[in-house]
Amino acid sequence: MENPFDEIRCDFIELVSSDLFSATFQGRDLHSVMVEDALPFMRKFGHYNETDVEIGSSHIFPSLEISLWRNVMPEASRKPWGGHVEAIGVGKSGCFSAQSRLEGE
After folding, report:
1. pTM of the predicted protein model
2. Per-residue b or e along 10-21, where b marks 16 or more CB atoms closer than 10 Å to that residue's CB
3. Strand pairing partners for 59?
């Protein structure tokens, strides 16, 4: 008998800040840092989409297939800092990078 779960795949997972686990990237717990500190750290490994319409609350790193999100928007303009990283999205290959290529980045 064929296992019905053999073909189930996960394309994207979002890790919301929790006391039950931590989300670590290159040795740094991303949920424990302010976005203003997370962005320069993550930029060591890939750039984020600075033209994203949700910049400020969402920072997508297409080459890493990772997104950082925070609920607290920065004051005034579209400055990419302020507030803790509240959720980290991790996609399979192509999840963010395919969209980035379509948008001409």
Report:
1. 0.77
2. eeeeebebeeee
3. 68
